[in-house]
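Contributing new complexes? Match this layout with pyridoxal-5'-phosphate.
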Amino acid sequence: MKVEKNSGPPASVPGPRSRRIHAEEQKVIAPGLQRIALLSELTLTSGRGATVEDADGNRYVDFFAGVAVASLGHSHPHWVSRMEEQIRKISVGSFTTENRLRFLQKLAEVTPGSLDRAQLYSGGAEAVEAAIRLAKSYTKNYEVVGFWGGFHGKTTGVVGLMGDEGKHGWGPLPGGRFLTPYADCYRCPIGLDYPSCGVACAEFARKTIKNATSGAVAAVLIEPMQGTAGNVVPPPEFLPAIRDIAHEAGALLIADEMITGFARTGTMFGVEHSGVVPDIMTTGKGMASGYPVTAVISTDEISRAEPWAKPSGASSSYGGNPLAATAALATLETVLEEKLAERSRDLGAEMKRRLLALQEKYEFIGDVRGVGLLIGVDLVRDRKTKEPLARKVTERIFLECLRRGLLLMGYMPRVRINPPLTVTREEMERGLGVLDEVFAEIARDRSYR
Ligand SMILES: Cc1ncc(COP(=O)(O)O)c(C=O)c1O
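Output block (do not edit by hand):
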């Protein structure tokens, strides 16, 4: 990768090499790739920190990070050196390794309360399904309550817990799945205003359990902050209320920290903002900064529940293999060593301030919210009606940002900003500068109207 400074917007983005390789791949890869990969037509060749480079040598500040996966940024030296060392030794198998032991010990030190037993997996949906099986094993109940706007993956066991129209066309869905409104205060699902609402959506959850389920709820499954819905941050009373409601119903609270875990929100886990200790936590993405590792974490008592706890009852082929454990260890070591939670908190606060300043300038910025480096921005045609910006405008924002060297999940009206936690001030400034330029262009020609 070249080391000289990026010199303004590249002439052609994506460049000819990127386009050609992308187009060739399109002939052999099945449809259904992530929208950002399809829209950008990028072929990426390398990355350092929060900057990635494409096949034509164009560089981009990365405010996407593989949807918050690249927590340490790309090719972090400590992560690379640990992985290089491990890959020469052994890569496969479920046997104990020293790195796995060290990772699990360190993990138990940083998880809230007595969540000190973890089982490792390789996919997010897989971990959430395993957490649901654990909750079923412990409670002997079988229903699950999730939230509008929620996302926990696309496998059959969790697709019914997808809180939007993303599941349309995949029915019939498995039974025993119920959804209730999330505290998305900018777009309150029940049309109220915070705080005068008294967090009525939590009360709604109680009624959902009473009126919609058969009274056999094993788990209430919640993201402490909703990622896919647009990096939505609920008010602090919401999660404690949901925990109480889950427990009243004899259910366990599963916090899905796939996105919010490992310093993303300025604390090690998202639940710490509300002081809630869930019964089970699922995590992944930034946990191993790019190697596919996920985890189900619970207490000693809960994790002993059978059949989950029987030999081979909770295992998988790749979960916790030597490479996975090493990637997770290297990541956690770096998160602690480089104090990335504090960094995320401080840089995130700075970034939010800067975005709020942009909101003063541009009337189509309806909302700016976030904790740490998990930031959401709502783009609207009209601040009063909150009608979202049309997709053709948001896709233009995405492509204009890309052309100027910023990779941003700006192709939707609920823009998600989640750069690597190691993003430098300079990279952050550059990215925000591009955003300001693109927004100014949209404001000038009033295309958002
Ligand atoms: C909160 C949450 N849970 C679960 C998942 C599913 O993860 P995977 O795509 O690895 O199955 C995601 C993915 O974005 C997620 O955001």
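Reviewers usually confirm one structural detail per submission. For this one: The longest strand covers residues 365-371.
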